[in-house]
Design brief:
Blueprint: H1 2-7, E1 17-25, H2 31-43, E2 46-53, E3 61-68, H3 74-90, E4 93-99, H4 102-105, E5 109-112, H5 123-131, H6 134-146, H7 151-160, H8 169-175, H9 183-192, E6 196-204, H10 205-215, E7 219-227, E8 233-238, H11 244-257, E9 265-269, H12 275-280, E10 283-286
Parallel strand pairs: 5-6, 5-9, 6-7, 9-10
Antiparallel strand pairs: 1-3, 1-4, 2-3, 7-8
Helix pairs in contact: 5-6, 6-7
Length: about 290
């Protein structure tokens, strides 16, 4: 079985180049999957030296230590990442590889998107459902997430359709939030390891504030929906829009607040609006990424 196979793994030598694989799955990783992954690594001339579970009880979030007898050049890393991506996609598992180093071990901030990452819904679509404009708003959401429409424009269009809808629908959305399977365990595990956690969302503060408290996160940033004196949405937002560049800027602001470099940050997101944030972090993970 996998446990006996891991026990037999060789120790990394001083002449080998170490790497770390991080695996994230919505369900427990099976022994069959892990054995197939180890075989793929061996076929790529990478040896596995250890496996650690980062989530509680089940193997949903796993870290694997691997090494090569020689440093991989940029093209080899690209090819291997492509192979890992295809393998992970076939098994509905997100896989990331990075060089092992003291700096990697010093990563102490994880920044996450909210919609379709921490939670399974797109909040603005849920608000639109109660406002009776779900299909119109969802179509714009899909275009924005895929990158075919400017985020600022798409947000303003969607928010304008909520005009006159009662702000009390926030509570209905909160009551029906569905967290991504395993995310609560992941956040607890990261907190135990000493990480600071943040959610930076193109959604809305009423929801991110709730999610921050529910998951014991340290920071939350999002857009603010304007509410009129009548208790209804005005169809506008207040303050700067949390778009792609704003997300990356907020990541750097938090890192500065925590006195760490961007290389020590992990970012997780799923859409085009997350790409600059993922690129700014030392490790960017595209979670259930949009095509």
């Amino acid at each position: 079985d996998i446990s006996s196979r891991v026990k037999e793994l060789p120790k990394v030598s001083t002449t080998q180049t170490p790497y770390v694989l991080t695996l994230l799955s919505e369900t427990a990783l099976s022994a069959k999957f892990l054995n197939q992954l180890i075989s793929l690594l061996n076929d790529s001339q990478l040896q596995v030296h250890g496996l650690a579970r980062l989530s509680e009880k089940t193997l949903r979030t796993v870290e694997m230590n691997v090494s090569s007898d020689h440093a991989l050049d940029a093209e080899q890393v690209r090819q291997f990442r492509t192979a890992l991506y295809q393998f992970g996609k076939a098994h509905s598992v997100d896989v990331a590889i990075q060089p092992e180093s003291v700096l990697r071990r010093a990563k102490r901030l994880v920044v996450m998107d909210m919609d379709s990452t921490l939670i399974q819904q797109e909040v603005i679509d849920e608000l639109a459902r109660y406002a009776g404009v779900f299909e119109k708003v969802q179509e714009i959401t899909h275009r924005a997430m895929g990158g075919s429409m400017d985020f600022n424009t798409s947000l303003q269009l969607r928010v304008s359709m909520l005009e006159g809808s009662p702000a009390s629908t926030f509570k209905q959305v909160i009551d029906n939030l569905v967290y991504t399977d395993g995310v609560k365990e992941l956040c607890r595990a990261l907190k135990r390891l000493g990480y600071k956690l943040a959610v930076i969302s193109g959604g809305f503060t009423a929801i991110t504030d709730h999610v921050r408290q529910a998951l014991n996160l340290d920071y939350s940033f999002a857009n603010t929906l304007e509410i009129g004196e009548d208790g209804n949405f005005t169809g506008k937002t207040r303050g700067p829009i949390v778009n792609a560049q704003r997300k990356a800027d907020l990541l750097l602001t938090i890192a500065q607040q925590e006195n760490i470099t961007s290389d020590q940050v992990i970012a997780i997101g799923d859409g085009a609006n997350d790409l600059p944030m993922l690129g700014t972090a030392g490790l960017g993970i595209a979670f259930n990424a949009k095509p």
